[in-house]
Amino acid sequence: MAGSAVDLTKMTSLDGSLSNGKSADHLTVADVESFDPTAVVAEPVPPVVQSNGENGEKMREIVLGKNVHTMCLEVTEPDHDDESTGDKDAYMASVLARYRKTLLERTKHHLGYPYNLDFDYGALSQLQHFSINNLGDPFIESNYGVHSRQFEVGVLDWFARLWEIEKNDYWGYITNCGTEGNLHGILLGREVFPDGILYASKESHYSVFKAARMYRMECEKVGTLITGEIDCKDFKAKLLPNKCKPAIINVNIGTTVKGAVDDLDLVIQTLEECGYSEDRFYIHCDGALFGLMMPFVKKAPKVSFKKPIGSVSVSGHKFVGCPMPCGVQLTRLKHINALSSNVEYLASRDATIMGSRNGHAPIFLWYTLNKKGYKGFQKEVQRCLRNAHYLKDCLIEAGISAMLNELSSTVVFERPRDEEFVRRWQLACEGNMAHIVVMPSVSVEKLDYFLNELVQGRSIWYKDENVRPPCLAADVGTVNCCCALHK
Ligand SMILES: Cc1ncc(COP(=O)(O)O)c(C=O)c1O
């Protein structure tokens, strides 16, 4: 697709200007060819904003990403002769080809988010011509026939076995993401206990606090240990004055930043010690990432419906790996009735957060679960944990503060000083911490490549003796901190 075949005048907006501020008259073929909509741009430096300090917490600077409006791909009206010239098709093909290249490059340099980018769903490309929609309840077929419920329920049964609940006792569905699982799980808790108080550790994912706002629930933030797991002493202190109201608890099976696993058994024990019988609490387990990994970790505590939990959710695009965000939500059949209503128009039941539901996602999940099976996941989990230990050891050896929780593949380390470096490796940062989530797509070679760049970068950032790496003792403990004071 030669760039010279592109009709530049067709890239203008309605007023004749381009999204980069140039007029079409001044646009050259070179401009078009070098225009990479998704490349990491060095400038402008992203704005620094203040986070909302709560309960007297110190305000912290947050670095936001760049404003996409400065480089968006405009949608332009077709010209009357487009079909005969083929110019617009050629233009769009060239944009997509460049975009694909960017995706390849960005995939190669991705480390910070818990996404397994290693998958091959070529066999499913034949399905892209179908508008597959599972609107309504997965177990009650709607009148819309282009659905994939047979795959969806197969996937749900697989997870029911993993989390130990009988087929006849559970209800669940494939969600759009882990967030939707949390929104659904917490809503179930609220429907079961309309006057219940939501308890969640302060290191819970933001979607948990969003749920509290959306449902206007009273919410108690519970303190955490240095590992990031819920501090059950503080939990007890928060429960006791509220004993007159039922408790809805979000338990983290892997926190977002530190990959910490809340001690489910201790949470249940604390509830019992505070006088909460099983009919006065509802536990939602947020297993967005680790919900699928933990069952395969030796010595790890179990997430199981044999325990008094109400629901578990997991993201499908994280450890499984999937080209579109998705997730799984499972609960006890007895809880779902409180949330359901029959809808004549659907000839199905409404029990989900969304209306239309992605019918492709269940097929992708079904495909991978079939290919890998429990054994395949077990092997991948072991490799991830091994590689995470390798990364953590290399960081410490290089004098870089780092922490790895025992059951986790999330390596927390000193935030790189250069924001450009952070963006290049797509690191997720909070305060002085950055993390890498070691997923099946993260090889030792990739980690070595990253480590080399980090060590080189630090030799430049900290060349001047007056600029020192940050102290991470408050975040990861003094034993894991390599700052000048603690090393
Ligand atoms: C602990 C936890 N819960 C929920 C979520 C939300 O998952 P999703 O991005 O699939 O909505 C995340 C995302 O990272 C997470 O780490």
From TrEMBL:
Regions annotated as coiled coil: none
Reaction(s) catalysed by this chain's protein: L-serine + H(+) = ethanolamine + CO2
Sequence positions bearing N6-(pyridoxal phosphate)lysine: K318
Cofactor: pyridoxal 5'-phosphate
A matching Pfam family: Pyridoxal_deC
Keywords: Decarboxylase, Lyase, Pyridoxal phosphate
The organism's place on the tree of life at top rank: Eukaryota
Any GO MF annotation of the entry: carboxy-lyase activity
Keyword Transit peptide annotated: no
PROSITE patterns: DDC_GAD_HDC_YDC
Stated family: Belongs to the group II decarboxylase family.
Alphabetized NCBIfam families for the sequence: PRK02769.1 (NF002748)
Name the UniProt record assigns to this protein: Serine decarboxylase
Lineage: Eukaryota, Viridiplantae, Streptophyta, Embryophyta, Tracheophyta
